[in-house]
Specification:
The complex is a heterotrimer of chains A (about 120), B (about 500) and C (about 100). With about 500 residues, chain B is an all-alpha fold. Chain B contains 21 helices and two strands. Helix content of chain B is about 80%, strand content about 0%. Chain B starts with 5 loop residues before the first helix and ends with a helix. With about 100 residues, chain C is an all-alpha fold. Classes of the chains: A mainly alpha (about 120), B mainly alpha (about 500), C mainly alpha (about 100).
């Protein structure tokens, strides 16, 4: 049942094997002459300003949370849109139902907005 | 085409009141933050009152409607649970303002979250379809995770919230996976169709049934799925513990009983879950009571005691399913009603003597209460004696009805274990009474102060009402039982 | 053609992986991921059954589960941030102030 995919599997193994072999070969035979410049993360360009491992402001998590919520709610629009096309004769009723949903979401939005979650200062 | 009709909306109005009130509170708090706190208490009480009266009215009128294309059924059973839960939540709301003000977190969000949770609870007992059940469960649990961590700077509260979330979400995982398997077996999410699934794909069906029941047992805090209860009870702000101990405790039984009786009510499935629940009931009663014996913190002790009471309720459910009698199930509903009163009162006393910088949670903190505050001590004594099951208090009648139906159903060994457990439980409930009445500052070496900080009429009203209820509804249990019978018989009308 | 059995195996595998993560990891964020895996395992089953049985019910159920999982994740992130602020760690094993 999976037999049509067998060549792809072989190809994957071949590709992975080739890549690994090259890595191993260069590691074994390649000359190693390390200097300070070579060991720095970026050989050219602007000097590093700071380390990347910093704490993020909690604001990022807040925005992430809100994003997840409002983003996921959009999932309900898709089935609604499909039905809307089929049941266009009931369009107004369907529109009002989605309007209620959006209004509830909007209350949530007004809430976070007035609570100052969206202010960055 | 399927659309929401006006009949649907008016049918679920007990739940709808609560959701609309919750949204209104959020809007009010966003647009008019200065006045929103006290106003939201009143809005919450009004919404809960509306739902309570609507549910009671429809319960007595025998309203039985199937709504939303069969996903929700507001029958006597759903209305009875709605009434119990609204009553429980009202009691929890009455106890909240004082404590939250002392902690400096008296915010409108508290009431909005609580209302959303209660809305989920009402729908949970009304769900006739697995995904509705899941959605209602999520609606009821997610706000409670937030409420447990409501005192944000408090380490205990945050930790309790984390633990409660992890276990709660874990349980949800089991439940959803179980639902997926049941749907696969039956090809439909409706509870009445599950029976066909057992015949078609028994492997899938029984795996799904097991997982679903494990999810439920987590939620009601049955052994061995009880580890969250004491931590969450102890760490949560006391009014939230009150809410958890009565409303959040009663609600999962609403869904569980319905699924057991309607979805898994046919012989082949009953033969599997009945013996399993017998073992779990015994474990739950025994482990809960024995662990409660050694606790020194009243909130934690009540956590273990609530585990034990889950065990008693399971005995009642088993009796009702064996006898197939609405009277036996009515005893379970009556027990839940009484349990709500007792718990609300007991936690209310702890809130009454909470100070700005310190909670009054340890048994030791109540030492000598009777000398300084005789009325408060008397109220606490009523709650504790009722929890023990001493006649003529309501707690006694609750246990008496459940146990007598269990004997009738032939669960004699189970009842003997339950009665032994009640005797054991007397030790830790009476420990509180001994501390209040027979010990003084000379025994603990420090003077306890019992002054009311942040006087609250709401709280006092709640305490007197619950104490009156325990004294009155014990002897005059007939009207309550009649309502419960009405509710129970509507469930049996749909069961196979 | 991938059979129903294979989908269900993947679902069961994911569920087990999620279960083990929740049981044995101490990092709160890992636990959250484990829970998400458990819910998504159920989603795979829903969609697979929906495909096998015909009809849209299973897919609609999956959508609801996705949304509920997102709501849970948002609350979980909030609790984890609080835990970090109050305890300075997201290790649930180190959160042992409640005597359990």
């Amino acid at each position: 049942m999976l037999s049509p995919y067998l060549p792809i599997l072989f190809q994957l193994i071949l590709a992975a094997g080739f890549a690994c072999a090259l890595l191993v070969l260069t590691h074994v035979f390649g000359p190693r002459r390390s200097t300070d410049v070579k060991l720095s993360p970026f050989e050219c360009g602007v000097d590093l300003l700071d380390c990347a491992h910093h704490r993020f402001s909690v604001k990022f998590y807040l925005v992430a949370m809100l994003f997840i919520l409002f983003d996921i709610e959009a999932i309900f629009f898709y089935p609604w849109a499909v039905i809307f096309r089929e049941e266009i004769s009931q369009g107004l009723l369907l529109l009002s139902e989605m309007g209620t949903f959006v209004a509830v979401l909007l209350v949530g939005f007004i809430f976070i907005w007035r609570k100052g979650v969206l202010e960055w200062a | 085409m399927i659309s929401i009709t006006a009949a649907d909306l008016s049918g679920i109005s007990p739940a709808l009141h609560l959701a609309v009130a919750g949204i209104a509170i959020m809007l009010l708090d966003a647009l008019w933050p200065m006045r929103s706190k006290l106003l939201s208490v009143w809005i919450t009480l009004a919404a809960l009152g509306c739902s309570l009266t609507t549910s009671l009215h429809r319960l007595t009128a025998g309203v039985d409607v199937t709504l939303f294309n069969g996903a929700v059924r507001m029958d006597g059973y759903a209305h009875a649970f709605s009434a119990i839960i609204c009553l429980a939540s009202t009691l929890a709301v009455l106890s909240a303002p004082k404590y939250l003000r002392l902690r400096g977190v008296h915010l409108a969000e508290y009431y909005a979250l609580l209302l959303f949770s209660v809305c989920g609870m009402v729908l949970f007992a009304a769900a006739e379809e697995l995904i509705m059940l899941f959605l209602a469960l999520e609606t009821l649990s997610i706000p409670v995770y937030c409420l447990v961590g409501f005192t944000r700077t408090n380490v205990y509260s945050t930790e309790a919230s984390m633990k409660y979330f992890v276990i709660g979400a874990f349980a949800t995982g089991f439940l959803v996976y179980g639902i997926a398997l049941l749907y696969g077996a039956a090809g439909s999410g409706y509870l009445v169709d599950l029976r066909a699934g057992a015949a078609r794909a028994p492997g899938l069906f029984y795996a799904g049934m097991t997982l679903l029941l494990v999810g439920f047992l987590f939620k009601i805090g049955a052994v061995p799925f009880n580890m969250w209860t004491p931590d969450a009870y102890e760490g949560a702000p006391t009014p939230v513990t009150t809410f958890m101990a009565e409303a959040v405790k009663a609600a999962p039984f609403g869904g569980m009983i319905k699924v057991l009786f309607v979805g898994f009510g046919f012989d082949a499935a009953v033969g599997l879950w009945q013996p399993a629940l017998v073992v779990i009931a015994v474990l739950t009663m025994t482990v809960g009571n024995l662990t409660a014996l050694v606790q020194t913190d009243v909130k934690r002790m009540m956590g273990y005691s609530s585990i034990a009471h889950s065990g008693y309720i399971l005995v009642g459910i088993l009796a009702a399913s064996k006898l197939q009698s609405a009277d036996a199930l009515a005893a379970v509903l009556y027990y839940l009603f009484v349990y709500v009163l007792m718990n609300a009162g007991a936690f209310g006393i702890l809130i009454l003597f909470s100070h700005k910088d310190k909670d009054t949670n340890a048994v030791e903190d109540l030492t000598g209460l009777a000398r300084e505050r005789p009325w408060a001590a008397a109220l606490m004594a009523v709650y504790m004696l009722s929890l023990t099951g001493l006649p003529p208090l309501a707690g006694f009648f609750g246990k008496f009805y459940i146990f007598s139906y269990a004997v009738k159903a032939g669960y004699v060994p189970l009842v003997i274990i339950a009665i032994l457990n009640s005797v054991v439980s007397a030790y830790y409930y009476l420990k509180v009474i001994v501390a209040m009445y027979f010990r003084g500052p000379e025994d603990t070496g420090r003077a306890a102060v019992f002054h009311y900080e942040g006087y609250s009429v709401f709280l006092l009203a709640m305490l007197w009402f619950t104490a009156w209820g325990i004294l009155y509804y014990g002897i005059h249990s007939e009207p309550q039982l009649a309502l419960a019978r009405l509710a129970a018989s509507s469930l049996f009308a749909t069961a196979p | 053609m991938i059979t129903l059995q294979e989908y269900l195996s993947v679902g069961a595998l994911l569920f087990t992986v999620g279960l083990l993560i929740v049981l044995f990891r101490q990092n709160a964020i890992s636990i959250l991921m484990g829970i998400e895996l458990m819910l998504n395992a159920a989603n795979i089953n829903f969609v697979a059954f929906s495909n096998a049985l015909g009809g849209l019910t299973g897919q609609v159920l999956a959508i609801f589960v996705v949304v509920a999982a997102a709501a849970e994740a948002a609350v979980a992130i909030a609790i984890i941030v609080l835990l970090y602020q109050n305890l300075g760690t997201v290790d649930v094993e180190k959160a042992r102030n409640l005597n359990g």
